[in-house]
C-alpha cells in the first residue's frame, strides 16, 4: 500500500512536501484536496486529519499532519540523501534553527501580504487600510532581510553547501507574497541567487509544477463560488489585526 499525501498546492507547506517527495522519487500517491471548496471539512478527510488541515499523510493506518515532521518521516522511512535532514549534529541544528524561526518570521508576514492582496479585497470584499498594508510590507521586508543576512550561506543554502528541507520550506513561503504581485526578489541579489540555486537543485520543471496553482491564484479567486467565501473568513480575521 503506497503512502498517500493529501495536498492543496495553494498551500505553502503542501508545496514543500510535494517538492520533497517528487524530487526524491518517493513512492507516494498525491491526492489533491480543494480548500476553497471546503473538501477539508468532509467526514472522509476528518478521518485522515482531525484538524481538517493540509498537508496530511496516510501510511497504512498511520495518519499525521504538519509538513515538517511529515518530511522528516518520509526522510527516515525512505532513507533519502542525508543533506535533506542531516545526521550531523551541527548541520541538523542549522536546519532546525531556520525551521523554528520561520513560523513567526517569513511564514506569518508572507502569508499576511498574500491574504491582504488576494483574499481580503477580491474574495471577502474587505478594504485594507493603507497604513496596515504599509506595516505588513515592513514586516515582510524585515523577514527577508534576516533570511539574506542570517540564514543563507554565501554561495550555498540555508543549512550549508547542499540543499535541505529548510530551503524547501523557505522558498515556498517566499513565493507566496510573490504570487500576490510583490516582487520580493527585486533589489535582493543574494536572495535571487539563492532562489536560482534552489530551482536548479530541485529542477525547474518540478519547481514550476509545484507553483503553477499559486501563481494563478489572483485569477482563480475571481471564479470562486460565493457560497465558499466563508471558508476564507478565518484567514481575514487572523491577519487583519
Automatic annotation (TrEMBL):
GO terms for molecular function: glutathione transferase activity. It is found in: Cytoplasm. It is an enzyme of class 2 (transferase). GO terms for biological process: glutathione metabolic process. One of its GO terms (cellular component) is cytoplasm. Pfam families: GST_C, GST_N_3. CDD domains: GST_C_Theta (cd03183), GST_N_Theta (cd03050). Residues 1-82 form the GST N-terminal domain. Keywords: Cytoplasm, Transferase. Residues 88-220 form the GST C-terminal domain. It comes from the Eukaryota. Its EC number is 2.5.1.18. InterPro entries: Glutathione-S-Trfase_C-like (IPR010987), Glutathione-S-Trfase_C_sf (IPR036282), Glutathione_S-Trfase (IPR040079), Glutathione_S-Trfase_N (IPR004045), GST_C (IPR004046), GST_C_Theta (IPR040077), GST_N_Theta (IPR040075), GST_Theta (IPR051369). PROSITE patterns: GST_CTER (PS50405), GST_NTER (PS50404). It catalyses: RX + glutathione = an S-substituted glutathione + a halide anion + H(+). Gene3D superfamilies: 1.20.1050.10, Glutaredoxin. Homodimer. Belongs to the GST superfamily. Theta family. This is glutathione transferase. It comes from Neogobius melanostomus (round goby). The lineage of its organism: Eukaryota, Metazoa, Chordata, Craniata, Vertebrata.
